[in-house]
Amino acid sequence: MRELTKIVIISVAVFLYFCWPAKVTDSTNPSINSSKGLPLQCQDYTKYATEKHAPLSRGPLELSFMRPPLECRTFTSDVIERVIGEFKSKMTDFDLFRVLENTLPNTLDTTILWFRDDEVEPRTFITTGDIHAEWLRDSARQLSVYQEFIGSDSKLKLLIKGAILQQAEYIKAAPYCNAFQPPPQSKVKRNPSSIDSVTPIPPWDVVFECKWELDSLASFFTLLNDYIENSKEDSILDHLLVKDAIQMIYTVLRRESASTFDEHGNQRPHPYTFKRHTDIGSETLPLSGAGNPVNINTGLVRSAFRASDDACIYQLHIPSNMHLVTELKRLVPVLKKHEISVMGKSLSILLESMAQSIDDGIMKHAVFRHPDFGDVFAYEVDGFGSINIMDDANIPSLLSIPDLGYTSSSDSIYLNTRKMILSKEGNPYYFRGAHFEGVGGPHVGLQYAWPMSLLVQIRTSEDDEEILHLLELLKETTNGAGLMHESVHINSPNGKLYTRPWFSWCNSEFGKTILDLAKRKPWLLFN
To answer: Which fold has domain 59-524?
Structure first.
């Protein structure tokens, strides 16, 4: 949704740079979030997130308290509240704690616009934040930070089960699509869908946007695998909706594993095309919506768009393939206990074979010798020898490879790749300015780095000094809000110029990062 992002950039930048309110409002006033089931006086959180609210943090940054009052929160979890209390008693950096206090519960506080808490058939609709729709990838990542706690909170567990079943419904209805409307029974207000020229034609009453992004389906597997692992239950795999979704995903993956031309050089039919009337090149696909060709027998799965919603240049997107193979390897052993078949063949065996083919394809086609950095992973390839050397902040990314679980942070190819993409010499989308630095991407331009990239950089680092430097950058560039934003202008003091005041995915990533450090490097937080 590039056009919407441009509007958000302009409006938020102008408002915040010149009109940051001097008045501090009391957060006990119910004036925040509007969605079904909340008091009428709860305003939209997009506006609330651009104002300061007491009590301010006790650190030098005096960061705002950004949690809605209790009556305006969309969901509460006792275990998450306990975690926040535990960190409050131990963290000595009051500003850093305030960012955690605001971000860790943000998805629960503000984005659960519908939750049917039926023990057998729960459903959960999760908005991405200031855009009133659910992205498969975003919602899976938004919930990821809570998965480790579902064994201690049955209500939270049911919420995530409902999210899995809702995503399964979406995938069954439109497996090529990335973002979806609220279910009719939720009675949540809808925004107009982005109706583009897409084949296969999606059901636009269900779909908000239909960009084929491989990581969307991989993210469903992440949500499902994390739930099974943390709940110690795999009975959800017997649910008909989940079975149908997995079968549908396999069918799409097989289609998208095909090359542009067959072994005789004949052009194959395109299983997916996308055309949009736009003056932004990365918002549509070339060659009548099919995208650039990919070669035969690569073992890789093509993706029309990246996790940033930008079009792929070469459609064999390596981070998405890494994400997929990792989740398939997690799912297959559990799936073998359940009878799911496709055309009379065991689905677990078919997916296991696919995972191996993808793995082999990555090592064959995505590893190349860089003249300055040695053996590294490419961001995109086409199987003909063309490679795209870059990284984008959105997960899955090359920076996030260990975070995805594809390889360890000590792997030599990863370390070379990491060094490359965290440098201006190796990554055209690594930006460094007077006040901020990090990986960005083409989505919002060449002056905006994404806090999400710094959070992934922390989680893939063993260097204490690097981590502390990044934590300082993050807490000092929220424009006093104490929330994570989509991107921050690299030359804007205190992060006054940014995009998207309410970007729940990145808020969850911040919470996930602090929880990671508490286990891995507690001395950095509790000293």
So the answer is: Glycosyltransferase (1.50.10)
